[in-house]
Amino acid sequence: MRHLLDILDLTPEEIGQLIDTACDIIADPDKYAEKCRRRKLATLFFEPSTRTRLSFEAAMYELGGSVLGFSSSSSSSTSKGESVSDTIKVVSCYADIIAMRHPKEGAPMVASMVSGVPIINAGDGGHNHPTQTLADLLTIYREKGTFENLTIGLCGDLKFGRTVHSLINAMSRYSGVKFVLISPDELKLPDYVTNNVLIKNNIPYEETTDLIGAMPKLDILYMTRVQRERFFNEQDYIRLKDSYILTPDKLENAKSDLCIMHPLPRVNEISVAVDNDPRACYFKQVLNGKYMRMALILKLLEVE
Ligand code: CP
C-alpha cells in the first residue's frame, strides 16, 4: 500500500506517469468516468480549504466514485478529544482512500502508520503540500513543455509556505534548475530546506528582497500569501503581509513567456489587474490540480 506524504515519495518517473495520465484524462475524460465506481474517498480536513478539498471531491466524482468526510475539526469527534490515530482507524473502515489536511506537521505521517488505506497529505502545517506540487508540476509542464533549465522565482512567505517547500524538493531533481528566493528577511526559506535540499544537491540559488530586480531572469514567478495562521504575533503579520504586491507595472521587464503562478488563496499578493495578462497561470493551476488528483487517486488505488 502506497501513501503520499511528501512529494519525494514519488520518483520523477512516477511524476511523469501521473502527468501522462492527467493529460490523457484531459483528452478523453469519458474513458475515466467509471474507473472508481464503488470506491470511496474520505476528505478529512482539520484546517480550512477550498481548492484542495473540493478538487479532491470533484476528482473522485469524475472517476465515478463517492466522497465522505468533514471540512473542519469542529464538526468531527476531534472536538471531543479523539486522536488523529483513532479517527484514521475508524475512517479506514468506511473509505478506500483518505486525503487529510492537518495544522500539525507530521500528522499525515502518524495517520499512515495506523491506516488500513492509502493516506494523502493534503497539507500539514507549514511543512508539505505534495498534491499542490502535483498541480504546479502539471502547470509548468503544460506551459513550458519541460522541467529542465528553468529559473524559478519564489516570492513572499518562504518560511511558512508549505507549497514552496514541496515545489523546491520536486524541482531540485531536474537538471539546470535555478531558484531565486525573494522574501523579507523574517520570512526566508527555513535552513532545513536550504541545507538539506539546495546546498546538499548543489542547486544554484540566490536570496534577495528585490522582486523587480529579479524579474528579468525568471521563467517562472511563484507568488505566495503570507501565512497569517502560522504567525505567533499579529503585529508581525500586519507588518509583513504586504511585502510584495505584483502589479502590471512590475512586470514591465519580465520575460514575454513568464509563467506567473500562485497556489491560492491570494490576499493582496497579486493585483486583480494582472489576471488578464496571458502570463497569469494561477487559475489554470486550480484546474490542473483536479486532473493530477484524479491521476493520483487512480495510482494509489491501483486502478488500471
Ligand atoms: N492551494 C490550496 O491549498 O488552497 P486551499 O487552502 O483552498 O485548499
Structure notes:
- This protein is an alpha/beta fold and 304 residues long.
- The protein folds into two domains: 7-128 and 289-300, 3-Layer(aba) Sandwich (Rossmann fold); 130-285, Rossmann fold (3-Layer(aba) Sandwich).
- It contains ten helices and nine strands.
- It has helices spanning 12-27, 51-62, 84-91, 107-114, 130-144, 162-171, 191-199, 211-214, 234-240, 282-300, and strands at 40-45, 66-70, 97-102, 119-124, 151-155, 178-182, 205-208, 220-223, 259-261.
- The chain has a five-stranded parallel beta sheet, covered by helices on one side.
- Helix 1 (12-27) crosses helix 10 (282-300), helix 2 (51-62) crosses helix 10 (282-300) and helix 5 (130-144) crosses helix 6.
- The longest helix is centred in the last third of the chain and has 19 residues, at 282-300.
- It is globular, with a radius of gyration of 19 Å.
- The two termini are 15 Å apart.
- It binds phosphoric acid mono(formamide)ester.
- Phosphoric acid mono(formamide)ester is lined by residues 49-52, 123, 132, 263-265.
Précis, in short:
Helices cover 36% and strands 14% of the residues.
